[in-house]
Amino acid sequence: MRIVDQRFQPTFELETAELALSRGPVAGIDEAGRGPWAGPVVAAAVILDPARIPSGIDDSKVLDEDDREALYARITACAHVGIGIADRERIDRDNILQATMWAMQRAVATLPVKPRLALVDGNRAPRLACDTRTIVKGDAKCLSIAAASIIAKVTRDRLMIALGAELPGYGFERHKGYGTPEHKAALDRLGVSVHHRRSFRPVQLALGLDEAG
Predict the structure, then answer these.
(1) What single DSSP character describes residue 31?
(2) Predicted confidence (pLDDT) per residue in 80-132, tens digit
(3) How far apart are CA 90 and CA 33, in angstroms?
């Protein structure tokens, strides 16, 4: 079920204008998982086919799990999709921003078609071998970025569900690594797992590497 709110839905207007100039494919880029205490950050790049855009594409945050899963299948069936995954080790080594930029680069690199322009959600863009344009709240404005937000979110959720089966007790399959009371209680009870981001302060507190307050 879609969450109803008073806002405009993303459109394909920007991509249409760029394609009308015959400058080549336009990719939307977004990520999922910058804020969680555990697990990877996942980026996706999507090039939509103007003649086969699935209906219902929207910012992944306003879609429920069933809608995201259905749209994931429909998008991957008719669009070019690339995915990049930065694991916990990279996040802790490089910091979350740099790991996110790396994941976005990988997502574009794995596209089967090279884009001429990449539309990136937010105000920071990775270094790419194509033109880039950042769009703040792009997942709520641009269909290609919204599609990428769905691909990234579903991919990461599936990974966290698998981690939940691998390490029962932490609740990864429910909170997906985000800082919920359930997750905090699991950290206190079970300790830090190999999938927890040691560069994040709540995990450092659990390890005794930082002091509260």
Answers:
(1) E
(2) 999 999 999 999 999 999 999 999 999 999 999 999 999 999 999 999 999 99
(3) 13
Q: Which residues pair with 119 in a beta bridge?
A: 28, 133
Alpha helix (H) residue ranges in the chain = 13-20, 65-78, 88-94, 96-109, 143-166, 172-175, 181-190, 201-207
Torsion on CA atoms 3, 42, 142, 27, rounded to nearest 10:
-150
Q: Hey, what amino acid is at 167?
A: L
Tell me which residue of 19, 5, 13 sits closest to 115, measured CA to CA. Answer: 19
Strand partners, 81: 46
- DSSP, collapsed to helix, strand or coil, labels residue 30 as strand
Nearest residue to 108 (alpha-carbon basis) of 133, 96, 126? 126
Helix axes 65-78, 143-166, angle to 10 degrees: 120
pTM: 0.94
pLDDT above 50 for 5: no
Cα–Cα distance measured from residue 26 to residue 205, given in angstroms and rounded to the nearest whole number? 43
The gap from C-alpha 166 to its chain's centroid, in whole angstroms, comes to: 22
Average pLDDT rounded to a whole number, residues 29-47: 98
Q: Is 181 helix (H, G, I), strand (E, B) or coil?
A: helix
Q: Where are the alpha helices (DSSP H) in 85-142?
A: 88-94, 96-109
Distance, CA of 12 to CA of 4 (rounded, Å)? 21
What one-letter code names the amino acid at 212? A
Taking alpha carbons only, the member of 140, 152, 199, 206 closest to residue 176 is 152
